[in-house]
Amino acid sequence: MNNNQYFTRNDVVYNNTIVLTNDNVAGSGLVAAVGVQHANGASIKNNAFVMQNGASASTLNHSTLFYQGVQMTDGNDPMALVCDRNAYENGEATMARFVEINANSDVISQGSAVEFKFLSQWRSWTKRDINSVEGRSLRTWPTAA
């Protein structure tokens, strides 16, 4: 049975600045600047995402982008996420967490919390965020001795 009628359709996240500040609270759930689950044709473009919270913000998932959806390896699946022209400052978070499901909503892979630590890894595997940039805030730059 095909359950793809339960997917949201054509969701968009455009032109936002999202900053998660460090509240010094350690959690056990999911912490992400943006999360997309069960979406058909979702699009995330022209955003700035800043993760200032510490490494202990979550024991389950601490990533700038959380995506639960269909696989994106060829870059052309109409159900898959479209994601480009974003600016990421990941801080202690990983770039992305990807939980793969199929068109019937079956979980194919839980992925790993550290699978896509950097934008380059995410870009290489998913063919997403080709024109996006990744930077570090001033607080993470090494200081002169």
Beta strand count: 13
CA-based shape: globular
Number of domains: 1
User: What is the mean predicted local confidence, pLDDT?
Assistant: 85
- Quaternary structure classification: single chain
Spatial order of the strands forming the largest sheet? 3-7-10-13
pLDDT < 50 stretches: none
What's the arrangement of secondary structure elements?
Elements: E1 8-9, E2 12-14, E3 17-20, E4 30-37, E5 39-40, E6 43-45, E7 48-51, E8 61-69, E9 82-84, E10 87-89, E11 94-101, E12 107-109, H1 119-126, E13 133-134
Walk me through the structure.
The chain is mainly β and 145 residues long. It has one domain. It has one helix spanning 119-126; strands at 8-9, 12-14, 17-20, 30-37, 39-40, 43-45, 48-51, 61-69, 82-84, 87-89, 94-101, 107-109, 133-134. The strands form four sheets. It has a four-stranded parallel beta sheet, with no helix packed on it. A four-stranded mixed beta sheet has the order 4-8-11-12, with no helix packed on it. Strands 2-6-9 form a three-stranded parallel beta sheet, with no helix packed on it. A hairpin with a 5-residue loop joins strand 11 (94-101) and strand 12 (107-109). The longest helix has 8 residues, at 119-126. It is globular and about 40 Å long. The termini are far apart. The model has no long low-confidence stretch (mean pLDDT 85).
Give a quick precis of the structure:
Helix content is 6%, strand content 37%. The protein has 145 residues and is mostly beta strands. The chain has one domain.
